[in-house]
Amino acid sequence: MVDRIEGFLLVEATREEGRTAAERFCAPLDPWLTEAQRAELERRFESEYLVLARRSWQRTAERAQELRAEYEERYRVLRCRMVAAGLLACAGLVAVAGIVAVVC
User: Fold this and answer.
1) Alpha-carbon distance 21 to 26, whole Å?
2) Mean pLDDT calculated for residue range 26-48
3) pLDDT tens for residues 56-85?
C-alpha cells in the first residue's frame, strides 16, 4: 500500500514538474500562440515529460535488478570461498593435531 502511495506521489510531482517546464517553454512563445495553441502545446509537453520520466524510472529499475543479480552472484561465490577456506583450516588443524598426537 505504501509503495502505491509513493508511486502516486512521485507521478503527481513529476506531472507538476512537467506543467512548470511546459509553462516556461511556452512563455517566450506567448505573443505568437493563441490560448488554445498554448494549452495544447503545454499539454503535449507535459505528456512527453511524463513519458520520458517513466522511461528513466524503468531504466533505473532494470539497472537495479541487474546490479542486484550481480551482487547476489558475487556474494554466493564469496560465501562458497569462505566455507571452503573454513573447511580447509579445520582440516589443517585436525592434521596438525593428529601429528602432534602421534609425536607426543
Assistant:
1) 9
2) 94
3) 999 999 999 999 999 999 999 999 999 999
Q: What is the pTM of this model?
A: 0.69
The cell numbers describing 82, all together, are 569462505
Please report the pLDDT score of residue 104 as a whole number.
Answer: 77
Dihedral sign from CA coordinates of 38, 40, 42, 45:
negative
Question: Is residue 63 a contact partner of residue 55, using CB atoms and an 8 Å limit?
Answer: no
Domain that holds residue 11: 2-103
Number of compact structural domains in the chain: 1
**If DSSP states are collapsed to H, E and C, what string results for the chain?**
CHHHHHHHHHHHHHHHHHHHHHHHHHHHHCCCCCHHHHHHHHHHHHHHHHHHHHHHHHHHHHHHHHHHHHHHHHHHHHHHHHHHHHHHHHHHHHHHHHHHHHHC
